[in-house]
## 1
Amino acid sequence: MSEPRIGRDQTGPGQPGENGAQGPTAETSLALLVLEDGTVYEGSAYGAVGATLGEAVFSTGMTGYQETITDPSYARQIVVQTAPHIGNTGVNDEDPESRRIWVAGYAVRDAARVPSNWRSVRPLDQELAEQDIIGIKDIDTRAVTRRLRNQGSMRAGIFSAEALHDSAGNRRTLTELLEEVRSQPDMLGARLAEEVTSAHPYVIDPADHGWEGEPVATVAAIDLGIKTMTPVRMAERGLRVHVLPATTTFTDIEQLKPQGVFLSNGPGDPATASAQVGLLREVLDSRTPFFGICFGNQILGRALGFDTYKLPFGHRGINQPVMDHSTGKVEITSQNHGFAVDAPVGETVTAPESRFGRVQVSHSSLNDGVVEGLRCMDIPAFSVQYHPEAAAGPHDSAYLFDRFVDLMKEHQNA
Amino acid sequence: MPKRTDLKSVLVIGSGPIVIGQAAEFDYSGTQALRVLKEEGIRVILVNSNPATIMTDPEFADATYVEPISPEVITKIIAKERPDALLPTLGGQTALNAAIALDQQGVLEKYNVELIGANIAAIELGEDRQKFKGVVERSGGESASSRIVHSMDEALEVAEELGYPMVVRPSFTMGGLGSGMAYNERDLYRIAGAGLQYSPTTEVLLEEAILGWKEYELEMMRDANDNVVVVCTIENLDPVGVHTGDSITVAPSMTLTDREYQKLRNISINIIREVGVATGGCNIQFAIDPVTGRVVVIEMNPRVSRSSALASKATGFAIAKIATKLAVGYTLDEIPNDITKKTPASFEPTLDYVVVKVPRFAFEKFPAADPTLTTTMKSVGEAMAIGRNFTEALQKALRSLEQRGSEFSFAPSDDAAVTQLLDGMATATTDRIYQVQQALLAGVELEEIHRITGIDPWYLDQLALINETARAVKAAENLDVQVLKTAKRHGFSDEQIGQLRAMDPAVVRGVRHALGIRPVYKTVDTCAAEFPAYTPYHYSSYDQEDEIAEHESPSVIILGSGPNRIGQGIEFDYSCVHATMALREAGYETVMINCNPETVSTDYDVSTRLYFEPLTLEDVLEVIAAEERTGGVAGVFVQLGGQTPLKLAQKLADAGVPVLGTSPAAIDLAEHRGAFDQVLKSAGLIAPKNGTAVSFEDAKAVADSIGYPVLVRPSYVLGGRGMEIVYDETGLERYIANATEVTPEHPVLVDRFLEDAIEVDVDALYDGQDLYMGGIMEHIEEAGIHSGDSACVLPPITLGPDMLQRVREATAAIAAGVGVRGLINIQFAVASDVLYVIEANPRASRTVPFVSKATGVQLAKAAALIGMGVSVRDLRGGILPEHGDGSLLPPSAPVAVKEAVLPFARFRTVEGRVVDSLLGPEMRSTGEVMGIDTHFDTAFAKSQLAANNPLPTSGKAFVSVANRDKRGVIMPVKRLADLGFSIVSTGGTADVLRRNGITCEVVDKIAATPESEGTVLPLVESGEIALIINTPSGGDARSDGYEIRAAATSLGVPVITTIAEFGAALQAIEAQRTHSWSVASLQEHAAALHSAGLAVAGAS
């Protein structure tokens, strides 16, 4: 698609926005979602106004928008929610998955006017505006989703208010907006973990999460974009978790004498994470038990010598079926990944980095066969591509944290 | 785990007649189950007494038993068929209860039949409320505080502890029958008293009231590998206190955070495991305290339910189909998702649209009934709509109800009216949604309405948004793009916009089309567009992108019948489904438009394309336009879905749409009294004397000239809505005064009422040349009882060959005179050997499925092909028999009896008494059963048993009849006494019986005594009376009769209200006493008919 188009209501470059379909009480401020293939969706401004750029991706969860927007893995992405009503339960202070909203932009169909939930403390649009997150509403999110599904995730921009005009006050043409969209760097090759990680280490104590008695073990968790719930799930199982910045070195880790090392989820292209891959190889060489989630799975894959690649439109939702090959059982998982590990499913192979021994794909997607988990047979390391901490999402995979605890116990006993 | 290879034959139990709480949804799930089993190469045996279902079509099972669903009958079927397994989870509570009984009686063990898809222990854990409380606790959930009681004394004790209000729920009843809210001791006596009777285990649960809490339901599936998925979450707009079947419900949940939702999901998964649901579906209901978030588990159903059908339609995830596959051994990950093809069923559907279901009620049929909505389900049907947001879905759903006033209107209310609205909405009734919307329109604060109704503020704001949109439409200077788009986006119809702008809806439509504002059609795909969908299951939305693919050949569009209602139910869906099946087989691309989630017609793979849309002119025209622009339209069938599509015929023709089959002009000819009289006249036929009236003066003049009693009714109605027998001028005046409320555009018809006439019903096919008589049915009750409520028998048992010949000739003359192309239904009355024509309906009738099952000929399929130009002659030797027809059945043909099933026990007056069960010209039955056997007596007995109204073979019979029946009652009562029944009677009837040598115990007339002591009432209440014969007359005896019938209805004692029915019942009682029943499948009956000469290809 090279010709700029506006959905069905084409009004031609330069004059978008005459036919907007806003609610009678919504601010009538025009907003445009511009995809790099030239497709333009016309809606109304939502949250903050201005211009924002990012990779357009769709997320299919019907609940948990607050967790979604605060998931650091969504950094530099414009998230399109397929669920048509967003903001219904407002915003509370318990559900954020990190210290701020990370999405680069937010695209929804129908935004709530009155939030309603016993825990709600303020409306979502207010929260977006306060955190300066530019959004768009009243667009055909299903049309956008179908486009992204067919064409793949692509660079995009949301433009509203002054961003629709140039310095002289004239309406910017679609060609100009498109140029701006296409000027942003691609997600392929993006190094983002360092941008989202916590600058300082902190500790999550099991005693604060209902654990009675002594901690079971100490874990060094490298924050590449970690979600709040991840260390909490570990703490609930008696683990004392040191959350460490993405720049942490092996020496830093050694000083903590952890019984296990954990690599979190995070945004960006795993091919750029050579620092973390190097770090993980040192961990694996030390035979310290290791567990990785999402980005952590990709880094384990790369540390073992496998390649990673970008999926056409990724897996983003909380209904993703995954087969655990060790039990033959299906778990419904929470996923958010645009990249995946390229490893053979259904056979045990020796890792390309042969010093790490044999590896199995432990989990795979039932929808498209993508690798969803790795298990090392000869060293104490495993990882999954999805989110056992859920938040948002089903809790089917929480057993993986138990596996991590067991792995550390076995290793201690051995 | 792959399919089990040890299952060679499976018995499936259906759900029996359509009753409130158990309706067409079980035909949908049952039909899916049968299809899956057949596809898997398993021999399928079905028992279901409901002839109006698709599942009882002989082609869906190898042996189809249209027999009563009673343990005794099923035992005979098991003994005969020796199935390997029994699948009881797809036929509602009826099937589950039958399975439990078969297990308890040792039948399953004796014949080595394995229960699949369920296990008895799990059923008991799920349905026994006390045991279930333990399950909930072990699953990490909480139940409302409650106690089980087995007597009123216990109930009163518990009441002290829990305090009022309290929920009362009898155990093991369906659709919440007998449950209710007790606000005080009086209520408790009433509800718990009846509940103890309803519960087969004399067990009632009393529970802390969680009134006003948010209510949710999760639809779950589990496979043999312990994989569990949530298919759908349904949120009730109406807070706890209203049965979920009577609530406006929404999917997905709109007001839950992920944390709250996951809590419900976790508890549900734990419960399904703890209960041990073997494989298949179940649903779990929750309440959430809106203030604290406390979650309470309400109940679970360990089977496919009404909500499963809704969830299947709402998500595209075919629960019943998959449950059946799981029952025969597959696991979820081995079953492909039909819609995406490439992904498995082991996932959780995600929706990018909003689904709203609204119930449809029939309180107008039961004027004495209390319309308060409680935990006992009272709705008779439902409509579902899909939109891209809640406002669009809600407004589409409301207009799908097809009731006057079902769409929101926006006339302002004055202060007094507002006070009334606020008072009114404090009680949940069918009006509440409108009261809330009107109050918001009048400016009442959202918080106040939330305080009064408990409806979540988010929903209230959505209603406010609709009101604001209406205001904007009204205030706009012009109907411009902006205004129209906004209104359409929030679901406004052209009709509503027209009202707001004082414009004709057609003008609105013209403006809208001129501005290019048209709906697009989206796809229900289970996955929010993450994967391509291969199933064209569409819904409209005013959004940007259209998804309809181009089609190759012009489509044949079938209009469905909308929400089930009394008078227009599953029978019409049956005809629509048959039409689409026949047409697809003949190579046509078919398109179904319907909005009823319970039905087979809205199964996404029944037609080539499905549009889940309201059946209003606007919505239908838009679908037609969409089909037109993507490949063309061959035409539209309006004659299959009952009155709903028929009403659109002329308007569609006016819009240039080709109407297939009988033309709109011909339809009008049959429906218009004057024109129809001309048809009769030229055919040499007579109708009862009649006239039309538009005022009382008119009506009086007509009645005076033809003589009382007269039958009065509005034109263009179904189910006898507003039909009454009027005996004098006062009655006529009252009727006309109310009649304008029925249909203002059409006059009232006044007919001479023929007393003691035999009513005859005919279904026939006509192609312009040849007639095929589908069947002639003789009613058991005399004319005056609505044909839908009357039992009837095919072939006729008392009409002679010359009368049958006259009926045939009359049918041919009328079909030709009207110009029918397809089905026609004609009602005749025979009085003093004169054949009168009562009315003709040029469409598929309610009896088409019954006739088709009884004669083994698929009439609706034939009608569809005739509509496409195929002749009766061409159909002979195929769908139709080579020779003969349904009016010329061989003497050896089986006798089929259709009996109506009535919902009186569901409806209580404001005082808490059952409404009167007297039959009349207005239809009140919700469903029907068929009894089929070699002779009438046994067939009638089977029909009574199947209708849950088994006739006694001994005991006390109470007889009290009107004066005109005193002569006719003597012989049958004598026979009853000879058979060993002891007779109880009152005054006049007792005198007559004694003088005729019949001994009887005499009791006082109820009207004559201030106390019930000494009357028949205590005898009925103590269960001493096994049978009641009570024919009504005017005056005192009528009220006497009400007391007796009310007591009998609440206790389930059979009541016979006509002498004709008494005669039939007596034959049946004798038959039951003298010989045991045999069972035969429809396939066996068809084979017998085949060898006797009524030959249908492939029927053997």
## 2
Amino acid sequence: MALLSKKDAGLLTDPLTDNNPITVQVLGICSALAITAELKASIVMALSVMAVLALGNVAISLLRNIIPSKIRIIVQLVVVAALVIIVDLILKAFSYELSKTLSVFVGLIITNCIIMGRFEAFALGNGPWKSFLDGIGNAAGYGLILVIVGFFRELLGSGTLLGFKVLGDPIEKTGLYAIGYENNGFMLLSPMALIVLGIIIWIQRSRNKVLIEEN
Amino acid sequence: MSKKTDNNLYTLVFAVIMVLVVGSVLAFFASSLKPNIDENKRVEKQQNILYALGVNDNDESNANFISSAVAGKKFEKYIKKQIVIQGDNITEDANAYLIDVKQQQTFAKEGKERKLPLFVGEKDGKILYVAPIYGKGLWDAIWGYVAMDENMIIQGAYFDHKGETPGLGANIKQRFFMDDFHGEHLLTDEGEFKGVTVAKGNNDPKNERKSDYKVDAIAGATITGNGVSAMIKSDLQLYVPYFKSLKN
């Protein structure tokens, strides 16, 4: 047997499909709509959320027996806000360029409902190692959807991927544009992210037997 | 169910201790890292001004500053003079680039005479004038530096933002947007200030019309674009008397 027991491995893989935070639990939709206009931003956001969620889950899990239940949400907010601000300050001092790219995401991470959702639903009731895995797994499930949506929005909206002009140059009319292809500007706006997300949920629900509801 | 942690006194004590601990940890980080952060910001201003002047490490499609290690030296080499315009007074000040434009805008609102910094640089034998601008985008502050020749024709621009939407408004700091400003006129032939508007429906993606006072907007970033137009208009207008005086 490898590194993880079956149960622990499930913590990592369940959020990718059967219990995906975005498409099944419907958490973190706002940031999935806001920052998926390009692939790079999606990847950066996914990695940032992974770091914060894993660390935050461990912190909350360690504190779970001493947190007063009446103010637990406030405690969770304080922990995540403090974590994010400290990371931001350290980046600003030692890796200024990177911090400028990430600073936009800081506010979005703090308000991401996945973070509060996992603290509340998992870290408060489980040990640090399990919570760590749960954090990584859920952030990966979130990131997966972000990257898929970002991929289609950037490709169809701007004709680029990670900034590279994969479909040719729309101004010089090379590549696909030479035969009359046009970028769909609507893909760059948030409503289209919601529609792409809807299509993903549709495909997932029609293929995944666990998710098909009886009626 | 009654647990120790449901007790009111416990809750209160926990909250107080948490605030004290988290507060002091944050204060410790903020104050111990402040010198580094301030230094980074100072160097960044020099890099921004040099970028607008055309001194940068741009590759084919990406905007890159010159490295922060050489920024100080290059700044001394290319920026010949830093002047501060305050009403009719024009003084030289080697630290004019540190003037806080936002603070000066507040002074102007309070009716005080604001300081207008202007950086006179030389690039490829041409004298260029770089002015800072500062305004509001959709979510937060946006700012930039604009390099002009003596006729107020834009020769280079740098824009930056604090928190515009990635992929949309945040693209004002991409080359495809900043480069469009190159060659745009700010003044009409009669010498009246018109500014440059970030316009939808400009229908000029290669930006061939240089004296239409318009550049192409970014799809999905209307409010950020309007912010850019507004700060160009309000801040660069203030320099018109100085440029007129250059001619006489």
